[in-house]
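Issue: copy button drops trailing tokens. Both records pasted manually instead:
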Amino acid sequence: MERTFEWLAKALAIVGGVVVVAITLITTASIVGRWLFNSPLLGDTELVEYGMAIVVACFLPICQWRGENIIVDFFTTKSTQRTRDLLDRFGALLIALMLGLIAWRTGLGAIEQRRYGSVTMLLQWPDWYAYAAISAPLGIAALMALYTAITGRNGAHGGPPTHNPVPEGALRQEP
């Protein structure tokens, strides 16, 4: 299971990276076209919107799997390792629930957008393409978070971090 999650996380990150490069090229072409020919790319903002949704969805699984999400641990730095591990697992469960809900609603949104024939304003691209493209990566990230919540393991170190990011004497106050 962990090897599959690692492979999926890497594959989706590569897809996300390719889409970032495409967005960069589209934006550059539009700016150059506007500057040189007074003619930007038609629908460039729509393409960037589609692309950014895909990028975010494709990078979420690798962040989740490797435990690289931002964690605010200000209140837990003096807690025991066991308490921090339990809180990390509870946080992973909350992320799994949230991403699962978003993936589910996005999938339903794709079905609805397709049924109603909703399209973008300039390019007339079907809106459901974007919904469908982000639903699967969100669902994969949700499954990874659920796995972490259940097992306490992720792709970072086989589990939650075991080090305290704040040096031992850093929180002591001098009299």
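Record 2 (pasted manually too):
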Amino acid sequence: MKNDCNSRTRPHRTESRSRTRALVLATCLSFLWPGLASAQEASAQAVTENAHIKDYGTGWECNRGYRLSEDKKCVKIEVPENAFLSFGGKGWKCHRGYRKGADSCAMIEVPANAHLADFAREKWACDRGYRKVRGSCTKIEIPVNGYLNASGSELKCNRGFQIRGGKCIALEVPPAGYLAASGNDFQCNFGHLKRGAACIAIDIPSHGYLGPSGTDWRCERGFAKRDRACVPISVPTNARLTASGNAWMCNSGFRRRLQICEADTKG
């Protein structure tokens, strides 16, 4: 007789096979864990129709294609048209091209010049060379010096041109400016700021210098930035300049009170 104690089989689809399997398991376990075997046997007797003993743990669960109802019975899952059982067999999903409703699958309406797209919220996307406009796909008109981007859903202009009113217009680079890396805008030279369509030189005050970015200025050590000027820092007694050189701090053993450093009596 074949030894069934160590065999592992897939869940049976009928009540009789499920009970037979459970009883065999209970018999095998009775030699090692009598109490557990008794519990397994009792559980097998209580398995409802269209269910099977769980592979792990105790109790039972509904067969594939069935779900547990409120009255603890396994009822067949009604799979609507254009649908299929989910991987776990406890529910259903719609076929591609259909949208799931309460108990049915409705066909997804794909407009002209579009295609199914699982990643999109509407489950469709416009074809290359078209853009979505109010639920439809409108052709993208490509002007002179223009082209489609990699996805084919947006108009781009050649280097040295900008999009204006659906056209690609030559970009005017002002003095002290140059084409940006994108090629569709300009940036200003070091020491200049972009103001509209112009590059304006930065006004650096006395005791000031350009910062590393070239778009702002800083004050020399011993001076602080105030509005548009660099003003001398008055360092009080028992104080010193900070590492930046643009502010002061009290020495050890002193604390700041307004613009002076007084002895720290609190220790």
